[in-house]
Amino acid sequence: MNRSRVRAFVAAAIVLTQFAAVAPAHADPDTGAVVLPLAATGDSGTVVLPGLQATRTLAVPTPRGALPAELRARVTAPPFVSSVTVDVLQEGRTLSRTVVPRPAANAPIVLPLTGIRPQQVSTTVTLRTWLQADGQCLFDDADALRLTDTSVGYAGAPAQPTTAADFLPPVLSRVSLLLPARPTREEGAAAVRLAAALSAHYPGAPLTVTTGAIPVGGAAGTTSPFERQIVISGTEPRSFQLRTGASGTYAVLGGSADDLTRTAALLTSDLAPLAASSGVLVEQPVAAPQLPRVMGTLDELGIGTLTATALYRPTVTVGIDQTQLGGPVRDVRVRLAGTYSPGTTGEAGRVVVSAGDRTLASWPADATGTFDRWVDVPNDLLARYTALTVALDRPVARGGCGEGGAATLSVDGSSEIRRATASPPAPSGFQSLPQALMPRMQVAWTRGDLPDVRRAVAVVSALGRMARAPLGVDVVDADEAVRSRVPALFIDADGARSADLPLRVRAGSGGTIEAARPDGAKVVLRLDPQLRAASLQVIADADRTLVVATSNGEPGLLDAELDWLAADPTRWPTRTGDVLLQTPNAEPVQLNTAPPAAARSSSDRGWVAAAAAAGAVAVLLAVAAAVVLVRRRRRG
After folding, report:
1. Domain architecture of the chain: domains with CATH
2. pTM for the whole structure
3. Which residues form the signal peptide (predicted)?
4. End-to-end CA distance of the chain
5. Residue of 137, 126, 142, 133 whose CA lies nearest to 50
6. CB atoms within 10 A of CB 159
7. Are 329 and 419 in contact (CB under 8 A)?
């Protein structure tokens, strides 16, 4: 496997790993200590340390009342490594040194954090590694020390919250939103907005947000330090209050529509640390988060300066995340400014910029040790997340292992990313989410009951987990969402408004299945007996994107589809196509009804039309296959 393909594979793996299923925090069976997987924070849980010498900083979650005591992981080194040494440092102080002679693959390793000075929310430590190699040098990108399944062991137990300021812990695995059995629109809107805000507050983390009715006897709270319960009720006093239930502390949000909106916004805002009381009344609206402008520096985007040190090929990755840029983008230009270790005359090498397996730019690494270049990213390479790799390619040192010294490459935080807005978004369909709904989206439902609120919360929280910037959410009535040109999520659980929506696949009440063609024509399949079905559809509707959750009179099938998506955190981010169709007693079927990329010349139009027609027929054949499968299962 060549280096460029390794880089592309690693970038894709990083993106998918952050959504992988994560084991929850648990008690050590031997010591009873709380153990928290780093993946629960949105980190991949894998620490890669390339080269004979490497450093990596880690943010260790630090819940109130618990002291980080050790890092636990499984270590894997290249086969020619005879010894591994890992130091853990904090602010220049060595907390521990651990030596592992000839480590086996996936060997357990424990790194003590003796003498750590805890900080609020998270504590930063640095890992520094040395590898002793048997007659070989590490210079290939794929050769690295890897710590996998990294977790933190704590001394002491996280404390229950006592004020609004510490209600949300550094790591949150589950939050239960409890509403009246018959919620008002304002209560439902507060739940949806809070779900979006919580997902943004824990970016990339596998946070589960559930919605249910307030129990008859009231909320009980929870014993888990990484779970929370929040009651939302307009009949409660207009404030945020902490209360104690049978199992622990829970929060209550009460008051009018404005009160609920303000209080929900406070919980995840920068002002939350000021709320050092068990009861808080928010008198003025909390300012909404600001999204980046057309141009943003790496510092402004929260990426900061990127630095790598390695013996032969120091490499950094500039992540172009459309959700971090606040919407679908095209025509991306990146100004890369930075420094590198200049080599000796004739041996300096080159600075190479690539995306996937395509080299976008390269230039000689001259003796100045600095660079400042603009690089264009082709539109066909732009995905929800695009990894732009910057590497210093140097000649392999001659002589003994490690001769020549390490080199450092740095991309400064003042580097810029410029972009234009893409309309329609690219990529399309599910891969356009959530950026196609940003910076602000509408949410509407047809029934407005608790199940509708639960469906909206499920979709919005899933979209929020994929976003690196907050989703702006406005809950509106169904008529406004139909007429509006603003991106929207439309919950039409029983299909009552299907005639008003530009659905790509439509399951009629008379047994018909229709698939739309890009030219406006329809391909129709009539089923006897008729098939009940639900679907989640992503529709490019003129200049906006519309996400519709619907069925032909079978809301339970829609719930089954949303439950299927929620059961595995990787399912939402890896969906392709634009329709996810759910039929009885089967897993959802993924379909692609969208038109091919628009032809650039008239000579391509005939091919596009033929491909579109073939695509519509293929969709109906897929539906027919699902019908046959369902009927066979019923006979069985």
Report:
1. 26-156 (2.60.120.260), 165-280 (3.30.379), 295-397+406-421 (2.60.120.260), 430-591 (3.30.379)
2. 0.86
3. 1-27
4. 47
5. 142
6. 13
7. yes
